[in-house]
Amino acid sequence: MIRQTRRFVLAGALALTALPASAQNVSLLNVSYDPTRELYVEINAAFAKEWQAKTGQNVRIRQSHGGSGRQARAVIDGLDADVVTLALAYDIDALHLNGKLIPADWQSRLPNNASPYTSTIVFLVRKGNPKAIRDWNDLVKPDVGVVTPNPKTSGGARWNYLAAWAYALKQPGGDDAKARDFVRALFKNVKVLDSGARGALTSFTERGIGDVFLSWENEAFLALKELGADKFEIVVPSLSILAEPPVSVVDRVVDKRGTRAVAEAYLQFLYTKEGQEIAAKHFYRPRDPEVAAKHAETFKKVNLITIDDVFGGWTKAQATHFNDGGVFDQIYAK
Amino acid sequence: MAAAHASPRVLPGFGLTLGFTIGYLSLIVLIPLAAVFLKTATLSAEQFWAQISAPRAVASYRLTFGASLLAAGINAVFGLVLAWALVRYSFPGKKLVDALVDLPFALPTAVAGISLAAIYAKNGWLGQYLEPFGIQVAFTPLGVLVALVFIGLPFVVRTVQPVLEDLDTEYEEAAASLGASRWQTVTRVVLPAVFPALVTGFALAFARAVGEYGSVIFIAGNLPLVSEITPLIIITKLEQYDYAGATAIASVMLVVSFALLLVINLLQAWAAKAGRREG
Lengths: 334, 279
What we know:
- The structure holds 2 protein chains of 2 kinds.
- Chain A is α/β, with parallel strands linked by helices.
- Chain A is 45% helix and 16% strand.
- Chain A folds into 2 domains: 25-115 and 245-270, D-Maltodextrin-Binding Protein, domain 2, CATH 3.40.190.10; 118-243 and 302-332, 3-Layer(aba) Sandwich (D-Maltodextrin-Binding Protein, domain 2).
- Chain A has helices at 2-9, 37-55, 68-76, 89-97, 111-114, 155-170, 176-188, 197-205, 217-227, 251-257, 260-269, 273-281, 289-294, 307-311, 314-322, 327-332, and strands spanning 25-32, 58-64, 83-85, 117-126, 146-147, 212-216, 232-235, 239-243, 247-249, 285-286, 303-305.
- Chain B starts with 13 loop residues before the first helix and ends with a helix.
């Protein structure tokens, strides 16, 4: 009986035959974050058409969406992403720091900090704005309930936090200590810290939590579109932060798969008039001045600060504010 | 029933099955767990201690292990009642109720969390009636408990049910004919017989609750020091690309869970032995 069993244990070798990539067909994997799904469905179709006309090649672009940080980790752990289009530069920096998948200067390889479209942080309030929320300082009033995802787990929420910090800092007589007090008071009004932006939006819209939801502008527009402009309205604060969701090819992957040319063209396409139009249609602020002028009606003028000016870049902001023991932890410590 | 302690063993194939057991366990359980400890070992002792003793981490252990034990306890009591009703009585729709018990197994946990949050939020079906009494379930530690009770329900029912089915009503009748009161029958005859299975169900429900993330995260509120569960602490560490910190917390969870499960298993073995002696 044992001899029989041994026979079963004979290991079979599995030969993997790599099929040579057909010259007529090429595929890309775009690893992105959650709210860009619809944007990239449209971008992909438009780019595929253009690429076909230009080179005769069929390009199929697959999309993967999830929390920005989780997506970056998946790529670090071996997900073969040709391009990444994430919520914040910190997560793409991680591809360089944890695995050297891309060079350190990735953000200077494309125009505008490698961010073809931008957004900003606005307030979503209930119809009629019953708590009369006009600006950041209304959020720290004792009877106002604020909804934001957790900055520790959500890239988007880090922009929220930094925008609030920048507002307090830019007030007359503002300094780091005042900003810290302001942010502490603001988070005292936060009763639920969902792990991601969509979850927080649900808490605000469906569960009736809070009076104001801190949101990316594109998400706020989307919420109005999906849930009805008769239920919510958008309030644009006096000052906010320029949210730059950056993009990059993943050098290690495109060089291995031989897809560098098409991957780079794909990202370049985001900067074309057509790409910018599609971004604007999905409520991302276009970079192209002409396209931006066309949509000036939608995108209200805001006094925008940048993370580089006020916080010295993502790596520094992350270390100071969001890492363990950082300011965000301190404002919650007893 | 007596185990064969003397060698040579009566039953052939011991070496083969034990070898397979060890090999299989290594592949499926031990190697991944070893990776956790290996990654943790990149931290110095002080770093490790700082990670696992941070106030937020400690608060999360209290919530995760406390709520899990409590939820498993609640499930042990009510799961037993449920199993009893399903085994001992027949009623219309019994098959349906029986199938319902398994639903928490099959439901994606995120779905469970979202529905529970919707029901218990202050504008939800149940939440709106609890709100006037000042009882908030969704987005509080109580919400964590509710979610853990939900996902742990099938374990106790499904472990106790077959034992109750095997337990002939004749035993109860015999007890009654010997003059035992109904209460005595339950505590002296039925409970000792199902106790080992009950403990197993408790252990399974507890283990599941400790590791639960998907359903809890939607109903917990996730406030630092208040309603953060330990798996969320691990996720936040990963968001900072702090792999070693994440595995440090994970190793604490593993060690505590293993110790608790070991105690529960010993208790179960002891109960089984005591049960046999009495029976």
